[in-house]
Design goal:
The protein is built from 7 helices and 12 strands. The protein is an alpha+beta fold. It folds into 2 domains: 61 residues; 187 residues, outer membrane lipoprotein receptor (LolB), chain A. β5 and β6 form a beta hairpin. It starts with 8 loop residues before the first helix and ends in a 6-residue tail after the last strand.
């Protein structure tokens, strides 16, 4: 017996198989010759294979239909990536930060460059320790725990005050903790003009790189956020961001923010510059170009705050 190879083999075999079943019902098997019996065996074999063919074909067709009918998962937009990171960062128990900032101060026809670096360990409640340095010289250290805030300028004496005696913005940002403040800052960047730079490898980790160009609304919001994070003596309504670009590197798996670069132009209160870097000028506000980098690590890892052994109550006249 030959089987057609014109593509209709399975159909032809099924027809023979149907005839086989009909003969079986009519009781003709006993009258069949040896040749017919041999033919019956061949038919049985082909019938079995035909069922396998049709079953396999059905499975393949269903698989193809499933692929065709299932839409591909859309990638998150830059705003969604930042939004997820904002939510995750605000809920962190703690993190460690290393930061550096270079300011070019334009004052009275000359430019002066200052570099500030430091570290921060912070928890999601009123627990933090921030150290600000200029080169190897200490600028300020801020320690906050419970209801007490300790401040040291340079290597001078420590002062302590109750958090309720601080300006409202300072109370807010210290009480809620830096993780939540970072989350709020990221939320503000969602409304900026965003550009997806794709994934990049930073420190052996693949991170999603997003660039945010600040618009007027995000400039105002970011100004408020950053101003509130400064030590209370350096906070001023005269500190205003005027333009800027922020680059973010976010882990696509955990949504942790690993790195933030800021390139801005701002006006800064002269009193802040006098206290921070010792700059003396007649102008009330000074134009400043600032470039900073913040690297975050040790997410949700415990840290120890070193509380000063002795501290003088903060004088009301110096507030």
């Amino acid at each position: 017996m030959t089987v057609s190879r014109d593509g209709n083999g399975p159909t032809r075999v099924l027809e023979v198989a149907k005839r086989h079943e009909q003969l079986k019902k009519e009781g003709t098997q006993a009258c069949m010759t040896k040749r017919e019996i041999s033919l019956r065996k061949v038919v049985n074999m082909l019938y079995t294979r035909a069922k396998k063919w049709t079953t396999t074909s059905l499975v393949v067709m269903l698989y193809l239909l499933t692929i065709a009918g299932t839409p591909a998962m859309a990638a998150d937009s830059p705003s969604q990536i930042i939004g997820k990171s904002a939510d995750v960062m605000s809920k962190l128990k703690s993190f460690h930060g290393d930061f550096t900032s270079t300011e070019i101060v334009h004052s009275e026809g000359r430019d002066s460059t200052y570099t500030i670096n430091g570290t921060a360990d912070a928890a999601n409640t009123n627990q933090m320790q921030i150290k600000l340095l200029r080169g190897s010289d200490s600028l300020a250290t801020v320690v906050s725990t419970g209801q007490n805030v300790y401040v040291q300028r340079g290597t001078g004496p420590w002062y302590v005050t109750n958090i309720r005696k601080l300006p409202n913005d300072a109370q807010k940002y210290i009480s809620q903790g830096l993780p939540k403040s970072i989350g709020q800052l990221l939320s503000a960047l969602q409304k900026a003009r965003l550009e997806d730079k794709g994934q990049e490898t930073v420190g052996n980790t693949k991170l999603h790189h997003i660039t945010a160009t600040l618009d007027p609304q995000s400039l105002r919001t970011l100004t408020q956020q950053l101003n509130g994070m400064l030590p209370s003596k350096w906070q001023s309504n005269q500190n205003q961001l005027q333009r800027g670009v922020v680059d973010l590197w976010i882990d696509p798996t955990t949504s942790y923010l690993h790195q933030m670069n800021i390139d801005t132009h701002a006006q800064v209160d002269q009193k802040v510059l006098s206290q921070g870097v010792g700059l003396q000028t007649r102008a009330a506000v000074v134009p400043v170009d600032a470039r900073g980098q913040l690297k975050l690590s040790k997410f949700d890892q415990a840290f120890t705050i070193q509380i000063p052994r002795s501290a003088t109550p903060y004088p009301t006249s110096k507030r």
